[in-house]
Amino acid sequence: MARTILVVGSGFAGLWAALAAARVLDQHSVMDVEVALVSPQPQLALRPRLHEGDPAAWSTDISPHLQAAGIRYIQGAVQRVHRQDSHVELAGADGAIQSVAYDRLVLAAGSAMHRPAIPGLEQYAYSIDQAADAAELDAHLKTLAARPDTPSRNTFVIAGAGFTGIELACELPGRLQTMLPGVQPRIVLVEQEAAVGPDLGGGPRPVIEQALDSLGIERLLGQAVTALDAGGVVLANGERIASATVIWTGGMRASALAAQVAAATDALGRAVVDADLRVPGGGGIFAAGDAAAAITDDDGHHTLMACQHALVTGRYAGHNAACDLLGLPTQLYRQPVYVTCLDLGGWGAVFTQGWQRDVAMAGADAKDLKIKINTQWIYPPAPQRAQLLAAADPEQAFKG
């Protein structure tokens, strides 16, 4: 009976985990082990692009890639992981629950936007968390031109001035030019910390501020959204902003599946993993991407919920799951190079190097790099078996 390496999730980490596992099996001519990937749809959602227009275009069908690599696709959403007897429960497209056994599991189930219990948040806030959320926002923006020309219609509040909030705020002026021609929109970033990009540090902040000023983006700092309704938001200081479009970009939380398999999770709900991305406690489970809290280097830095870490942890986790099943040595995950490239819309972008985020490039040149990242580097190669398996080598993974 064939043994199974099961990968949960078809995001960056899940796709590359499955390909990396298939690569190990191919290298060792193993015929009695299958790699299977389970997700609701065989789609790779390109979340780094969801702040851009036309969000329906920012996903890619990975069925040809899975078929080319000999990976079985299982459609469904995993509800529970039973590590004691090595199987998962998943709900199929028809809602029926089925059980799938595994010999090794790679949890790459991703993350979702954290939505705290703020009155009106669920009912009235838009987001760009998932492709469906970004599509809903895009559809809403396209209805605005048919509404009366009022300050509320022309005001856009973005709650959260982190990475996502900044990128969206900088992109909106260009998107709205075609939707509301002749209108000067009011775009307001609301941030509870005292500065924009609080997690980005002081290195790139002057560049970000310059871009925001150039694009006419207002900032309300040291303020939190305390309530939303159909007409706008209320801030902690009691100020009310009338707006037909409020967009929430709060922090992320790992899939709840991480807590089911892990002995310990971090503040973001991620499984705390060993150096080879194994979830401690037995059961043959590895974790990658947004589901894993892993040390990246000898200085003790940890992975972020970011594409660059998902692309590489996925490769290592899939490789190690296959090696572990075959009785081969696993590889320690290390990703010492860390960069950021923040899209600043029509102004350009800013590219930083190192965990201290020293600015290495800004403006048009950084924008060209960002475009290359988003249109080339994050996409999988052509669905050709040899090319896919070669690209799944963790030692050759993109680490910049």
Automatic annotation (TrEMBL):
Any GO BP: aerobic electron transport chain
GO molecular function, one term: NAD(P)H dehydrogenase (quinone) activity
InterPro entries cross-referenced by the UniProt entry: FAD/NAD-bd_sf, FAD/NAD-binding_dom, NADH-Q_oxidoreductase
Keyword annotations: FAD, Flavoprotein, Oxidoreductase, Signal
Domain FAD/NAD(P)-binding: 4-311
Coiled coil: none
Taxonomy, superkingdom: Bacteria
PANTHER family: 64 KDA MITOCHONDRIAL NADH DEHYDROGENASE (EUROFUNG) (PTHR42913:SF3), APOPTOSIS-INDUCING FACTOR 1 (PTHR42913)
The protein's name in its UniProt record: NAD(P)/FAD-dependent oxidoreductase
Organism, as annotated: Pseudoduganella ginsengisoli
